[in-house]
Amino acid sequence: MKGRHADRFPNEPFRASAALRNASFAPGWILDKGFGIVAVAMGISVFVLAGLLGWELYRGAEKAISRYGMAFLTGSQWDPVAGRFGALPFLYGTFLSSAIALLLAFPLSVATALFLTELAPVWLRRPVLGLIDIMAAVPSVVWGLWAMFEMVPWLRQSAFPFLQKAFHWLPFFQGPIYGVSLLAGALVIAIMITPIITSLAIEILRSVPPTLREAAWALGATRWEVIQVAVLPYGRSALVGAGVLGLGRALGETMAVTMVIGNRPEILLSLFAPGYTLASVLVNEFAEATSEEHLSALFAIGLTLVAVTLIVNFFARLLIHNVPFFFSPRPLPLQPIETKQ
Amino acid sequence: MSRSLPDPEGSAPASSRETDPQKIPAAFQIEELRVAFGSRPVLHGISLEIPARQVTGIIGPSGCGKSTFLRTLNRMHEFTPGVRIQGRVRLFGEDIYDPKVDPILLRRRVGMVFQKSNPFPTMSIQENVLVGLRLAGIRNRSLLEERLEEALRMAALWNEVKDRLHAPGTELSGGQQQRLCIARALAVRPEVLLMDEPCSALDPIATAQIESLIRDLREHYSIVLVTHNLQEAGRTADFTAFFLEGKLIEFESTKKLFTNPHQKQTEDYLTGRYG
């Protein structure tokens, strides 16, 4: 029977062209294979690079490690002239300045992100977002310059005396005020990681499905309750992740901190006292390290810094998966209900 | 090209019920409701009385303003920038757009179920059902337990989840999740339930379950059901309103509207002439 399209479609089954039927590979198979090989190589190179980095650091630090062992991490004396190398003051300064910075920056960042995604009028959002991204891109040394010439004098003259007056009974706020101090270092880190965490937090909050917000609205939630019930629980693990990224950045932060932290390898309880960090001692002493021993100790500092960052990341990841976030709504005080029939 | 008229007899709402919308007390009285997004008008003066303790279906082609209309009934448009709402909407006599009315409290009286089931992913089944009560500040444990079972039973979900109330809500199947969302809306005992195409993402079995649930719920609730699906309106709604291009074309008892529409446009839509 002749169909409507008989003129266009001959009355026999469709066959692919002879060229296609006889080909043994799809055209482009070389690209496909090639891409596969390149991708695998790139993947492997990550491990190779990490391995090489660890190996080089270890080789450089071998002398210090064999001489001091774990005592390198617990020794509180750092005196290159006398040939005494203990890294504890740097560990202390790194941890404390980063922890204070994160404590200040994280709530501020999450609050800023919440404001911009949930509350701010639409016309305000774009300019503020742009500003935050610019702040995240300012080079470390520029922040350091600003902190050295503007922030530190202000801290010395106004902020620190005020804090000392208000909290003189706390050991953290006692002792002489120089301006350059562990707290100044922590503040400059906080200022630097705030735009980074904020920027990440905004992306996270934006990814909260609108249907969840609507569900909360429809149940009669207030603005704050929508945030508490729908927005933060959905984003909590990602927000902790953003905090961890900020912390990673804080631990390794070098230039700006070096410029304002005071660079004195001592463990002092007062936050107004100068401190020192792992990254700062590397940048300050590498060029001047003449003795082999000194150089080896600096390599050991570098190895410690890498290890600290890895360990912090590891524990933060555990935290993300296991601990209920402090923002999550209070669990209901209900026991499982006995089945009634 | 022909599409048969949905059969309003099949599992039709009890035919003994009142069929004249004028004779039933109204849940919502809507007068000259106009809604515009920016300069684009979406609803052009809708006047409608939605009867209490009945299922009112709203049908019409895509973009006719059905969902927009539904969302004016619990003031969900407040979060849409540039929206303008004129006219009057009264819930049991009270003007819900009166400045003295708190939209938060209004939404506790007017529950809503959405097109896509949206249980809170970090909450258990129990927490999902009770979240509305918790937001309302209810802490009394025995009351919470009572409402949990009541809401889940009303949503015909109790027997399926009673042994795993602490499992995450997202572990349930699609149809169960939608019933969980219905239970969540019912737990605060609203006066009205708005449903925005609640079955459009579900398979036929889950759809049948939800539809039978809607028919049972009408004993207690006034339900407004927006649907794409004519058969669904035919099966579940007592009354049906037909919207076209932001206007209410016809509002009648479902049986009358489907078998003997007054308006040519209604007939054209029912026989498949507008998408």
UniProtKB/TrEMBL annotation, chain A:
<comment type="similarity">
    <text>Belongs to the binding-protein-dependent transport system permease family. CysTW subfamily.</text>
</comment>
<feature type="transmembrane region" description="Helical">
    <location>
        <begin position="128"/>
        <end position="149"/>
    </location>
</feature>
<dbReference type="GO" id="GO:0006817">
    <property type="term" value="P:phosphate ion transport"/>
</dbReference>
<feature type="transmembrane region" description="Helical">
    <location>
        <begin position="34"/>
        <end position="55"/>
    </location>
</feature>
<feature type="transmembrane region" description="Helical">
    <location>
        <begin position="295"/>
        <end position="320"/>
    </location>
</feature>
<dbReference type="Pfam" id="PF00528">
    <property type="entry name" value="BPD_transp_1"/>
</dbReference>
<protein>
    <recommendedName>
        <fullName>Phosphate transport system permease protein</fullName>
    </recommendedName>
</protein>
<dbReference type="InterPro" id="IPR051124">
    <property type="entry name" value="Phosphate_Transport_Permease"/>
</dbReference>
<feature type="transmembrane region" description="Helical">
    <location>
        <begin position="177"/>
        <end position="202"/>
    </location>
</feature>
<keyword id="KW-0813">Transport</keyword>
<keyword id="KW-1133">Transmembrane helix</keyword>
<keyword id="KW-0812">Transmembrane</keyword>
<feature type="transmembrane region" description="Helical">
    <location>
        <begin position="267"/>
        <end position="283"/>
    </location>
</feature>
<dbReference type="GO" id="GO:0005886">
    <property type="term" value="C:plasma membrane"/>
</dbReference>
<keyword id="KW-0592">Phosphate transport</keyword>
<dbReference type="InterPro" id="IPR000515">
    <property type="entry name" value="MetI-like"/>
</dbReference>
<feature type="domain" description="ABC transmembrane type-1">
    <location>
        <begin position="91"/>
        <end position="316"/>
    </location>
</feature>
<comment type="function">
    <text>Part of the binding-protein-dependent transport system for phosphate; probably responsible for the translocation of the substrate across the membrane.</text>
</comment>
<feature type="transmembrane region" description="Helical">
    <location>
        <begin position="90"/>
        <end position="116"/>
    </location>
</feature>
<dbReference type="InterPro" id="IPR011864">
    <property type="entry name" value="Phosphate_PstC"/>
</dbReference>
<keyword id="KW-1003">Cell membrane</keyword>
<dbReference type="GO" id="GO:0005315">
    <property type="term" value="F:phosphate transmembrane transporter activity"/>
</dbReference>
UniProtKB/TrEMBL annotation, chain B:
<dbReference type="Pfam" id="PF00005">
    <property type="entry name" value="ABC_tran"/>
</dbReference>
<protein>
    <submittedName>
        <fullName>Phosphate import ATP-binding protein PstB 1</fullName>
        <ecNumber>3.6.3.27</ecNumber>
    </submittedName>
</protein>
<dbReference type="InterPro" id="IPR003593">
    <property type="entry name" value="AAA+_ATPase"/>
</dbReference>
<dbReference type="GO" id="GO:0035435">
    <property type="term" value="P:phosphate ion transmembrane transport"/>
</dbReference>
<keyword id="KW-0547">Nucleotide-binding</keyword>
<dbReference type="InterPro" id="IPR005670">
    <property type="entry name" value="PstB-like"/>
</dbReference>
<feature type="region of interest" description="Disordered">
    <location>
        <begin position="1"/>
        <end position="22"/>
    </location>
</feature>
<keyword id="KW-0378">Hydrolase</keyword>
<keyword id="KW-0813">Transport</keyword>
<dbReference type="InterPro" id="IPR003439">
    <property type="entry name" value="ABC_transporter-like_ATP-bd"/>
</dbReference>
<keyword id="KW-0067">ATP-binding</keyword>
<feature type="domain" description="ABC transporter">
    <location>
        <begin position="28"/>
        <end position="270"/>
    </location>
</feature>
<dbReference type="GO" id="GO:0016020">
    <property type="term" value="C:membrane"/>
</dbReference>
<dbReference type="InterPro" id="IPR027417">
    <property type="entry name" value="P-loop_NTPase"/>
</dbReference>
<keyword id="KW-0592">Phosphate transport</keyword>
<dbReference type="GO" id="GO:0005524">
    <property type="term" value="F:ATP binding"/>
</dbReference>
<dbReference type="InterPro" id="IPR017871">
    <property type="entry name" value="ABC_transporter-like_CS"/>
</dbReference>
<dbReference type="GO" id="GO:0005315">
    <property type="term" value="F:phosphate transmembrane transporter activity"/>
</dbReference>
<dbReference type="GO" id="GO:0016887">
    <property type="term" value="F:ATP hydrolysis activity"/>
</dbReference>
